[in-house]
Amino acid sequence: MTIEIINGKMLTPKGEWTNFKSIHIANGLIVGINRQGEKFDAHTTINARGCYVVPGLIDLQVSLPEPGYQVKGTVESETLAAAAGGVTVLCCSPDTDPINDSEAVTKLIEELAGRSNHCHVLPLGALTRGLKGEHLSEYAALKDAGCIALSNGYHPIKNLAITKRCFEYAKTHDLSVFVNPIEPSLHLGAIHESHISTTIGLQAIPSLAETIPVAQLIKLAEATDVHLHLSQLSAADSVSQVREAKAKGLNISADVAIHNLLYTSQQIESFDSLYHCMPPLRSESDRLALLDGVRTGVIDAITSAHQPHEDAAKKMPFAETEPGISGIEHLIPMAVKMSDNNELPLACFFEAMTSRAAHVVKLDTPIIETGRAANLCIFDLSKKWRLSEEDMLSKGKNSPLMGQKIKGHVVTTIYEGRISYMADHA
Amino acid sequence: MPSSIQLTESGRLKHFLTVSGLDKILLTEILDTADSFIEVGQRNIKKVPLLRGKTVVNLFFEASTRTRSTFELAAKRLSADVLNINIDTSAASKGESLSDMLRNLEAMASDMFVVRHSQSGAAHFIAESVTPGVAIVNAGDGWHAHPTQAMLDMLTIRQNKGAFEGLKVAIIGDILHSRVARSQIRALNTLGVEAVRVIAPNTLLPRHVESLGVTVFNDLASGLRDIDVVIMLRLQKERMHGALLPSEHEYYQLYGLTREKLRFAKPDAIVMHPGPINRGVEIESEVADGSQSVILDQVTNGIAIRMAVMSMAMSGQTELKNALAESAL
Amino acid sequence: MHDSKTVEALLSSMAQELGNYLEHNDIREYELVGIRTGGVWVGNAIKRLLGSQQPIGELDISFYRDDFTRIGLNPRVLPSSLPFASEGKHLILFDDVMMSGRTVRAAMNELFDYGRPASITLVVLVDILRRELPIHPDIVGANLSLKSNERIKLTGPDSLSLEIQKTDP
To answer: Where are the alpha helices (DSSP H) in A250-385?
Structure first.
């Protein structure tokens, strides 16, 4: 398939926006930029006037509910949703059923992803067997089968000794560890501990439930020399600790879920279960610290933390609902919002979801350059639309944006030189 | 906003879920309407025909004989038909979802649900799911709110003290887990008392409790100085198990309301307790039964307040139904 | 139109008529009840004219109205108060303006919930005669017909007088 994209703006490898006349794609690669003089037989021409072209997004935290939770979504539906969000590479959580702690499950996921072929799926293997936090899983087998790193899938590890062993064994196989920092004895409740939780009387999780394990994990990483990637930070103090660790030259990276950059626990005053997530949305000062972390690079990557749910999972009293937001399709509108509010420049957002994310999982820096793989996202910054259920490709309609006016959308996503997503009215 | 779901366009009550977001005028209307129902309770025939032909369902997911019976009595005195449903939560989690259960109950043409649930926000959830025209009254949800209890407490205070202005009120006990305390604090502040104090050890106080509009005291004696109204909260035995308190004995030593401790408050201070009372744990028997105690008044007032909010909420739903019928024409 | 002098005159003749009526029906002991608010004013005035010192009961009929499904609950309900036991007693019920008869029906239902009276004598200052129910006063001050866009109001409590007001079209 050959594709020609014409007359848009693109993000250069240096991170600047520049106008282009044409981008030529063939055999899965970018074969020419601004070579409009040359003859090029394009099957498809995409007019990108008024649009922007960036490398396809890399999402380090996505819950694919298959195998096991197909009522929430399948690899097919959710990778298609990812493509609709402009994502061309995603890492999927091992928290499936069965848990991805074996090569059999890893291979299953890869096969399903390959069959759908909407984006590249890199499985995260389970740090412990069954994610029970007690025994090691077979790291070598997982790596061979294709796991890009190991993760605790938002499950606690029994004690520090076991965590240390996991890190040592991971280092042995040159695998990174993605860890959600959780102290289970403090992690009881459904929302962030603040005056809001006091007012509405919901059991609450103090920031300490994250910031104490962050300190412990950093020390263990230092002692074992493993690459520690802290998943979905939510508290200001976690950001400070990562800053200090990086200043010391430690091999630490971190990501944040995009909704922690946009929302706070204020949204939960009316018990709206669409804002129930883990880690919880915290206070405004936490949100600002997280944004600052992304701007300064202390936080390497932004993720969607995509977690689709069936209707019934959200239709209960707040604390009984399942946490998670179906957000992968709306990364661009959320980025536009942060840019419009002068909280995060678009170029920085894309850096956090392309080059910096790639660096965490040791992939080549995705750039738009001749000879490189053709993984691109073309989006429109200004189109305003109202989100309805029919618009969403994810099986999970659990988005707090539902029914709201949003700005910006993905026009086309190109994955390995093929169109993986094209908006209806492109 | 949590309260907008409670009010019709013209500001009438259509659900009674929380004191939060209701203004002083509406709260006063509830108290005044309750006064009329107190008079009804003194008559020969203690019934008025307001809710005649309406079906009120007591949907209790948490066991409670006292609250449920006062709601039942209140509904019956309004001439309504009453259905009591006690749901064993463990069975509920195996079978129907809450939403499905509501649909089935609505199919029986219920006009009002009185709901008690162990989850904060349950009453809000039900109010949002229910068909327009059906009123929801919150009989207590998790740690969040117990608005009828707060209002009957306010009525009791008004009966004994006249006005709210200038009053100093102290709430003593487990504020952290108390939906009653949260609702009382909101009501007291909205009605304009001079000061609300909470007296408890730090383990029983939620973080940022001052944001509710209270001053914190850890010491009972200093907390009670100058107090007009003393509200005791019940201490649950479970608190001894989660490393919140060392023993009932130490709690009683420090926070138990004895005749001696009561003397730190004003001589005409009244003593209240939402019940049931733990004698010898949070309060001395002599105080509970003493001249300053208005605990029994609270019980009588409970029926009147519940009659008031039930008729007001039904009235608001009527307004809503008429408006919907009109716009459908 | 009907100033306080006129109302005074009406009340005088009503008090006289009432006295005769009670004698004629052999009612020696009775209790007085007014429907809030106008009925209580009328009752107090006639009570004075009769030379009685008895306390007058006050009825708030909000809980007995038949239009709850149409208009909901009155936000300004006040407690009724009957400072006597009504069981087996002769009651004299006062209202200021009678029109459809529904207010009196509600008041009678409420009175019966206090106890079974021996009899009820209905005394009304002005009768607009637009009955929707078969209920009639025993003593009337004056009959009056109003146009459909008019209504009559009793002002008080001192110096009672009647006012005809135009309602909005």
So the answer is: 258-262, 284-296, 311-314, 331-340, 346-353, 355-360
H/E stretch holding A210: helix A208-224
Neighbours of C42 (CB within 10 A): 27
Whether the CB-CB separation of A131 and A99 falls below 8 Å is answered with yes
Mean pLDDT (whole number) for B213-218: 97
Tokens of A160: 């520090």
What does the mean pLDDT of chain A come to?
96
State the average pLDDT over residues A215-228: 98
What's the CA angle centered on A303, arms A299 and A308, to 5 degrees?
Answer: 150
* DSSP annotation of B227: -
Q: What angle do CA A223, A224, A226 make, to 5 degrees?
A: 125
Looking at the predicted structure, is the pLDDT value of residue C3 above 90?
no
> What are the helix (H) ranges across chain B?
24-40, 65-77, 89-94, 98-107, 122-129, 147-161, 179-191, 220-224, 248-255, 259-262, 285-288, 295-328
Q: Is B204 found in the same domain as B136?
A: no
Nearest to A149 by CA among A341, A326, A362: A362
In a domain, B277, yes or no: yes
Q: Quick check: do A and C touch, 3+ CB pairs under 8 A?
A: no
Fold designation for A2-53+370-392+403-422: Urease, subunit C; domain 1 (2.30.40)
In eight-state DSSP terms, residue C36 is T
pLDDT at B90 over 60: no
pTM value is 0.89
Length of chain B: 329
Q: What is the CB-side half-sphere exposure of residue C150 using CA atoms within 13 A?
A: 10
CA A19 to chain centre: 28
Task: Please tell me the total count of domains within chain B.
Answer: 2
CATH number of the domain bearing residue B81:
3.40.50.1370
Residues in B touching A193 (Cβ below 8 Å): 207
Are B86 and B211 found together in one domain?
no
Helix pair angle (A236-247, A284-296), 10° resolution: 30
Is the pLDDT at B238 greater than 80? The verdict is no
For A293-328, write each residue's pLDDT tens digit. 999 999 999 999 999 999 999 999 999 999 999 999
Q: Are residues B8 and B128 in the same domain?
A: yes
Nearest-CB residue to B49 (from C64, C78, C87) = C64
Listed by start position, the domains of chain A span 2-53+370-392+403-422, 56-360
Beta strands in A204-251 (DSSP E): 204-205, 228-230
For residue C48, the distance in angstroms to the closest alpha carbon of chain B comes to 27
CATH class of residue range A56-360: alpha beta
User: Range of B97's domain?
Assistant: 2-145+299-318
**Cβ–Cβ contact B122 with A under 8 A:** yes
Q: How many residues does chain C have?
A: 169
Whether residue B80 is found in the same domain as residue B215: no
Q: What is the DSSP letter of A69?
A: -
> Which residues, other chains included, contact A293 with Cβ-Cβ below 8 Å and sequence gap of 6+?
A233, A239, A242, A243, A254, A256, A299
- Mention every residue, 6+ apart, whose C-beta is less than 8 A from residue B288: B271, B273, B277, B279, B295
User: Are C113 and B33 within 8 A, CB to CB?
Assistant: no
Q: How far apart are CA A209 and CA A187, in angstroms?
A: 5
Q: Are residues B11 and B128 in the same domain?
A: yes
> Are C80 and B39 inside 8 Å of each other by CB?
yes
Q: Does C116 touch chain B (CB under 8 A)?
A: no
Catalogue all structural domains in chain C, each as residue range(s) with its CATH number.
4-67+77-166 (3.40.50.2020)
On whether both B113 and B175 belong to a single domain, the answer is: no
Q: Mutate which of B311, B320, B324 to disrupt the C interface (most C C-beta within 10 Å)? A: B311
pLDDT over 90, % of chain A: 95
User: For an interface test with B, which of C60, C71, C73 has the most B Cβ atoms less than 10 Å from its Cβ?
Assistant: C73
Give per-residue pLDDT as tens, A332-366: 999 999 999 999 999 999 999 999 999 999 999 99
For B172, other C-beta atoms within 10 Å of its C-beta total: 28
